[in-house]
Every structure is written in structure tokens, then in C-alpha cells.
Amino acid sequence: MTARSRRTPASGGLVLIIDDVRPLAEQYAYDIARLGGFNTRVAPGGAEGLDFLTREVADCVILDLEMPGLDGFDVLRAMEHREIDVPVIVYTGTGDFDRCVEAVRLGAFSFIDKSEPMERVVHEVRLALRQTDLRERLDELEERSQEESPLIGESAAMVRLRGEIARVADIPSPVLVLGESGTGKELVARELHRQSRRRDEAFVAVNCGGISEGLVDSDLFGHDRGAFTGAVKARRGAFERANSGTLFLDEIGELPGPVQARLLRVLEGGEMVRVGGEQPITVGARIVAATHRDLDAEAARGSFREDLLFRLNVHVIRVPPLRERGHDIDLLARHFAVSLATHLGRPARPVTETALAELRARGWERNNVRELRNTVERMIIASDAPVLDLGHVPADLGSGTPVPADPPANSTGWPAGLPLPADTADASFQDQKRAAERAIVLRALDGNDWKIGRTARALGLADHSSLIKIMNRLEIRRADG
Questions:
Q1: Separation between Cα atoms, residue 190 and residue 207, nearest integer Å
Q2: If you compute the radius of gyration of the chain from its CA atoms, what whole number of angstroms results?
Q3: Most buried residue, 242, 254, 373, 451, by CB count within 10 Å?
Q4: Strands lying side by side in the sheet with 315-318
Q5: Which pLDDT belongs to residue 122?
Q6: Is residue 397 a contact partner of residue 376, using CB atoms and an 8 Å limit?
Q7: With bands split at pLDDT 50, 70 and 90, how would you rate the model's confidence at 150?
Q8: How does DSSP classify residue 281?
């Protein structure tokens, strides 16, 4: 049985009862399923319960404290040590509630007496699941609070964008969001989710370009215990975590071919199987994918599956680059001046008209709104003057000329100025692509003295962690320089 990551408090989760008295445990399982609509399983002892929790995914545990061998306290300590984050309700038949209080200190959610009415037990399970749900929502809100750039703008391009979002927000079909780096594709995906009937369900974002090729299967589809070296416990993937909410697949064009095929099967059949698993799991998440690539061209070259593209581009939303919405630069700059100052612990200061005029003169091709955000942050840090003025605009932005495009490719299709890998002609497309990425990142690192933050900005990445993920995926170490 597979539990849902998000559920209504009334039903849907998997409850594991750990008790060495089998008849009592099975009666609990039966009554909880009957009264609460939960899926239930029984483990006849602490060791068996821990083994289940490392192999399967449970939503709540009802744990007997008095058991031979591995007792309830040992189970709680082992769960903390193994980082098994599941709410636990302990119960006892001895009436010794001091032991129950000690169990709560060890991390249990609550405690009950075995003589309690089953309606009270089901109520406690629902409270535990509701707490988990609220914690997930708080985590999501905290993550969203760090986002400095909502869909701000009054330009015609932004008005059109908001209209397109409103038209397709409540349609369950997949949406493909296209746009240059830094234009706010994830913000569009979140707005699609917010305006849909799924707004109270999970929004799960996966950066397909920032995952190691060997782990992308596990990140998307989850894995069972023992599926590969290091898989010491079962893990839900993004599809299960999204459940009936929204799954946002950022940089979908970076997915390896075998994972594209598996994703296509999920979209066609509405079911998936965890890595190393056998049991089909129904998935109900709405898919929103995004890319800065030309997927039609990628499909023509054979690097992206055409049938997957047809499944994803049922509805297409194009996010305008900042150069097409110049009138929004003033609004965005003023917004960042306030929100970033608060985030950085600095006083909010106005941006002068001369500074705004200078910002409007930029092309912003390198990273669009994200580049503007980073520029305003640098202006805030640059001075303690009462206003953000022309002199605070970073000099290395240039004199207003457009940012140059990527170096032209030579006859082999390889970027000029980058060393060709050995045996390029005989290498597969994926090998050549990986070698090109390594060369680009290594050149940028060398040019920035291996300063991760500075290199990330030079490459137009969101932050240093994005670069670290790419370096890990490409197996780049300092010795490579």
C-alpha cells in the first residue's frame, strides 16, 4: 500500500501499528480503517516496525511502549537516528503516563491509553496527519517568502501573460512554460497552481538540470529500500509528494533520454513504479514543465522525445524577456529596493530617476529579472547613502550596450574558444554535451579564481548552490582547474 504525501485529515494515509500483542494490533488496524478510512499495516514488534519504516512509507505510527526486545523507546531513538520523520502516537496499557511523557520528549506526537474509545484514537491520528500537513505548508510558505520577484508589471506583455495564466490555470492538462533564463518561469508555474482548484494541495518543484544523472530517476519517481547502493530506506519521489497538486519540472530539456521515456509512460498511463519497486502507484499531479531551450529544435535533432513534447505542450505559455517589458523595470527595481533591503537587514531607500534611467538602458539579456534583482542587491550593499543613485549602479554592467550572445559555434558545432574533447567525432551527443558543459563551467571558474558565488553570477545562475549542483553533476573538482 502506498500513502499519499498530502491528504485530507479525514482519510487516505497509511497508519502502522507496532505492537507485540497481535490480536490487539489487528483490532486497532481494523477499527482505524473502518472509522477513519485509513490504510493500515501491523508490525508484531519494534524490530519489525523499524524494518517496515525503512522499506515503506508510512504517514503515522501507533507504537506500544511495552514490548520485549526492542521496546517503544528504542524505536523512537532509532527513528530519530535514522531520520525517519513520521508522527508517532504512543499507547500504553499500564496507566504509567510518566513513561508516555518521556516518549513525547523523545519525539512522539502524543500518547493515549489502550482503553481509549477508537473514535478518540482516530481523532488523534487525524491531528497527527494535520500537523504534518501544516508543517509541509509552512515549509512551502517559508520557501516562497524567500522569492523576491512576484509577477510584477503593468506592461502589455505582462497583462497578456496574466491573462494566459488565468485561462489555463484550472485546466488539468499539462502546461509548457517557455522563456529565457531569469524571466520567472517558476513564478508562472506557482501562479498557475495558486489560481487552480489544486491551490490547497502540494506544489513540488524539481530542477531537472540540477540533479545528478544517476539520481534523477529516484528524485522523480522515488525508490524502494535496496534499489541501489545507499538506498537504506524507501523514499517518495516528486510525483508522490505532489500527489494531487502540481509538479513543476524546471529545465525539462535537461532530462536524460531514458528518464524522458519513463516520464512519457507516466503521463500516458497515470501510474508509476518506484525505482526498485514492483507495485504501480497512481499519480494525479498536474504537470507544469519549463525550459529555456527550443524543444522543437531539440526534438528535430533527436535529443528530446517528440512524443513527450506533444504530451507536454498541450498549453504553451511564453514568458516575455525583460527587454520586451521595459516599462516594468522601474516597478521591479523599486520593489527589489524594498524587499531586498528588508531581507538584508538594511533600511529601505528610494531609487532616483537617474538610476532608473540607467537601469532602463540595459539589455538584461544575460539573466533578465534575476539579473536586475542581483543588480539592485549590489546597489543596496554598495553604499549607506539615503538614496540609491546613479553612482551605485555597478560599473561592470557596461555602458548600456546589449550583453553579447554566446560565442559563435565553429564548423563542428562546438563553441569557439573552448577546447574540443578527444575523439569528438566518435562521441555520443550526450557525451559531447557533457564535455561542452564541463568546458564552459571550468572556463568560468578559472576566469573567476574559482570563487563559486562570482562564477555563478557570471554564468547567470540563480545562486552559488545552483553552480555547486552543476559541478557535482559534472564531477568537477578544484583539481580539474
A1: 14
A2: 26
A3: 242
A4: 203-207, 246-250, 286-291, 175-178, 315-318
A5: 92
A6: no
A7: low
A8: E
